[in-house]
Amino acid sequence: MAKRTRTQSRPKRATKKKTKKSPVKAASRPQQRRGKAAAGAKRAKPRKASAVSKKKAAPRPRTTLPSSGAAQVDGLSEGSAVPAFELPDQDGNVVSSSSLQGEPYVLYFYPKDDTPGCTKEACGFRDDAGKFREKGVRVIGVSPDKPESHARFRDKYGLNFTLLADVDKKLIQACGVWVKKQNYGREYMGVERSTFLVGSDGTVRKVWRRVRVDGHVGDVLDSA
Asked: Is 118 a catalytic residue?
């Protein structure tokens, strides 16, 4: 065999190229799993809404309360008899329905002594008291206040008619003027401002509910 010469180079062996490692560390297995799950969630098609979810829920019925001054449907009406009563006036004297038989009278209900609306209404009846007397009609106011409160109210404004104290609200409830009210979001029970024109036989001739004070006394006087 022929000998290799020094000049003859040996065949080079194939060497693997060294690859540089990326400075970024490989993601951990939990992170890889989360990445796969997120990718799968993106690919997943959105489920179609069921027929039940498409249907809108029926609105719940709301219980609405009457606004301030709203009247009840029951109570006194034209042609009905005034319930029998016995109540003290501003001086502590008892006034009864039987004692009023034979004379017509105005029976008006108001919420409270010495409040703006009630004072204005009372002064209106005071100013026209002579005209009511000329027609033979007596004026009587009713509220849940005590007789002592009525006396102060009378003296302060010179009221010249009867004020009855219905502290237990028996007549107020019997006439249907004790109602639910709502004012500035607050719910409470109170007296609805109401007026009844009663004939000499004790039956109601005319009814005013949800009374507005302005011009009211004149309307009652015209009907008396």
From this structure: yes
